[in-house]
Amino acid sequence: MVASRIQIGLVAAVLILFGLGLTLYKTARLGLPLLPGESREVWTIESKVSFKPAAGPVDVALQLPQALGGWVLLDEHFASSGFGFTVEDSGGRPRANWTRQTLDHPTTLYYKIQAYRANRDGLPGFPVAVADKPRLEADQLTAMERLVEVLQETSTGPGSMARLMIQHLNREEAGPDAAFLLDSYGGSRESLMLDVLAFADIPAHRVQGIRLQDGRRRQTLSVLIEIHDGSDWQLLDPDTGEVGLPDDFFVWQRGPGTILRVVGGRDSSLEFALVNNSLPAKTVVTMEQQSDQFALLDFSIYALPVEQQGIFKGLLLVPVATFVVVILRILVGLKTSGTFMPVLIAIAFIQTTLWVGLAIFLSLVGVGLWIRSWLSHLNLLLVARVSAVVIVVILLMAVLAVVSYKLGLDQALTVTFFPAIILSWTVERMSILWEEEGGHEVLIQGTGSLIVAVLAYLVMSIPVVEHLTFNFPELLLSLLGVVLLFGKYTGYRLSELYRFREMVKQQ
Amino acid sequence: MIQLISPRKLRKLGILGMNRRNVGYIGRYNPRGYYRLVDNKLHTKTAALERGIPTPEMYGVIEYQFQVAPMVEALFERDSFVIKPVQGSGGKGILVITGRDGDHFVKSSGAVVDADALRRHASNILAGLHSLGGRNDQAMIEALLDFDPMMARYSHEGVPDIRVIVYRGVPVMAMIRCATHASDGKANLHQGAVGVGIDIGSGRPVAAVQQGRLVTHHPDTGASFDDLQLPYWQQILELAAGCAEMCGLGYLGADIVLDRQQGPMLLELNARPGLSIQVANQEGLIGRLKIADEIADEFDTDAERIARARERFSVGRMVPLAEQAAAL
User: Fold this and answer.
1) Which segments constitute the 7 transmembrane helices usually fused to an inactive transglutaminase domain (chain A) (predicted)?
2) Which of A145, A481, B166, B205 is 20 to 30 A away from residue A347, measured at CA?
3) Whole-structure pTM value
4) A40 versus B292: which is more confidently predicted?
5) B62 and B16, same structural domain?
6) Between chains, do A500 and B5 touch, taking CB under 8 Å as contact?
7) CB-based contact A490 B23, cutoff 8 Å
């Protein structure tokens, strides 16, 4: 006993000190800040070029972004296993080239950048040129002339005409000319818009880029339309008609030209995975400058592909949640239904936000319990009964999602983030508890579980906690040490101080 | 404001807490591999039979669903019996039939049920409704004990059983759990049953506690606990110590019942006995466990250990915990 205590104490001390030491080293020597502090939104954008091989040599060209609108590129990284690789400058624009003589299997090429927006600049100047008038069929031409005439009559200048055009072409009930043109353009609204603008002698081109959404795995390119209103360039959103560069838009290419060209391949696609880290820009700069010198940094979470980084961002928070469970069970003595069920609920809360999550959870479990009480009359075998509950719970989730969507409550759509199996087991356990111990015990354990889940959620959503676990994963070793110590804690629980209080009352 | 007791006071009173029980005693003295014998009442019974430890007579086991109907059919031959889950915990799922009313069965509460109810109860047990973690289970049918009349006076409906905590072969603390109307015939102290602490030395009651309050009489039957004198006390202690040796657990709760004809019988074993026995005895366990350590180190045989325990744990005059705490 004593020996094992000392052993655990030693192991725990080593773990705690190692974790803290590494953290201190990283802060002191490498300049990684301990607190999130003044942070920059650093985006990691990973582009994936996938294609299947066709006959002959393969030549893939990817136009690289130019960092416009105040964006600063911190780092570029190419993955090109087995391919010849060059970066060329074609007319002031960098272009990546992957080449290979033969290829026999589907391939994905990666290009990763880290970027942040240093200041919210507009786009710089650009040579003004009106595109050539499009060549059109006779009937298209008439429709185009009529459309442009209408637009010009009802607008005051190039800017207002462009906005009017966007509104016009986005309407459900577009006029006959617009509808016909849209139809003959095969639905490519942006090409039609550019042609209309060219027809009206307004200088315009497309701007391609990415809508930045944290955690998106398969984002594709979006398009903005830029027009010259006589004095300045103006950006327009072809869907909403909004003016200006949206905050969440990362410009990849301005002006005509394709971004991806694949020769010798088919079914090619370009997708982006995005992760946003709120980091002091200094951190990232430090990392970029020093990652070659310090292997430690090269082996940090940042070295992983973006998708995995996103997953780890959530995963590294789980130990913190389990730590909350340890404290509440061992120190406080809260009764929960299932040891780590509250952690899973807390993770779901992160996706749904707290109040919405609580409401969804309570309504699902409530209705589930009600239906389960009916099932218990049927005297079913256990596995069949639990499966029945799983099916019922999933149907309830679907009903909840559909009904709330129809009612305009989009938040309830996040119901899908609740793990259905966990919900079903919760319902099952609670209902057995109800039959055996009565509603009182259900209330105690249910409340206990929710308290633990809510606390775990609150702790996980503290920015500092996320910052620390992601940037200093070695702190988890310290956490492990503390958990080991708790495993040997023999003191009283808070609940016991309450339970035994009656005994010492004078009667 | 919620009133709490200070942890310092609890420690001075020697009250054993859940964490210390789990780490210091269960985790240390109860090897995981031996739990099977305790958690499964059939295994317990078989092992007890081999060692000559008396247990209630077994009428049969229902292992599969198809056996339910013939087994219930066979029960028409019997006047009284008990159906319980083999892996049940905390007295859950125990159906006690005390008599017959034509083709119907009379439960201990007096309610009359038909054969359908028995079949349903048996299927529920098989499906794991009452078992640890909801695992599939078996149902066992045992003879109903002919309670010692001495004990019957102290119980309302349910089964009055004697819980003895045995630590390293030394009986350290004992109590009787008396079901009451408030506890709905169940023997759980937190549900309102009366816990009667029993003096290890004499087999006489030390104190009786209901919901944390000292009582002198059973609230339903009106029997005075002062008149309680457990017969066969030495045998009860020997039986409990024998069980500890049988199952290999160093920290064990043995539940024993008294039969009118055959004396003490083992009902079931518990590898994680609860802490409320301390309240029933108005004494903390920690001090006794320390003394038991000395006894276990000093003596090797059960007989010597029991004799020494009866000597050391004899309570002359019970001092309520409240007074003990006030004196601190």
Assistant:
1) 259-503
2) A481
3) 0.70
4) B292
5) no
6) yes
7) yes
Q: Do A507 and B322 touch (CB under 8 A)?
A: yes
Residues of B in contact with A490 (CB under 8 A): 17, 19-20, 23-24
Q: Is B2 a domain residue?
A: no
Indicate if B31 and B71 belong to the same structural domain.
Answer: no
Q: Kind of pairing, strands A107-117 and A71-79?
A: antiparallel
Residue with tokens 């031409």: A141
Listing DSSP states for A254-323 in one string gives ESSS-SEEEESEEEEEEEEEEEEEEE-HHHHHHHHHHTTT-HHHHTSGGGS-HHHHHHHHHHTTHHHHHH
Residue B222 and residue B122 in one domain: no
**Residues A396, A390: Cα–Cα separation, whole Å:** 10
Domain end point (choices B126, B142, B158): B142
CB pairs under 8 A between A and B: 94
Instruction: Please say whether the dihedral angle defined by the alpha carbons of residues B231, B234, B240 and B243, taken in this order, is positive or negative.
Output: negative
Reported as a single tens digit per residue, the pLDDT across B238-282 is 999 999 989 899 999 999 988 888 889 998 899 989 888 998 999
CATH, residue B109: 3.30.1490
Residue of A nearest to B91 (CA): A436
What range does the domain containing B115 cover? Answer: 58-142
CB contact (8 A) between residue A497 and residue B129 = no
Provide the domain count of chain B: 2
CATH of the domain at B33: 3.30.470.20
Ranges of chain A whose pLDDT falls below 70: 1-2, 31, 37-39, 174, 186-187, 278-299, 305-307, 379, 381-382, 436, 503-507
- pLDDT value of position A66: 78
Question: Quick one: B66 and B46 in the same domain?
Answer: no
Q: What is the mean pLDDT of chain A?
A: 82
Q: Across the interface, which of B9, B20, B211 has its CB nearest the CB of A504?
A: B9
ipTM metric: 0.80
Q: How confident is the model at residue B132 (pLDDT cuts 50, 70, 90)?
A: low
Contact with chain B for residue A341, Cβ under 8 A? no
E strand or H helix at B173, and its extent? strand B170-178
A493 touches chain B (CB under 8 A): yes
Contact of B279 with chain A, judged by CB distance below 8 Å, is answered with yes
User: Looking at beta carbons, which residues of chain B come within 8 Å of A339?
Assistant: none
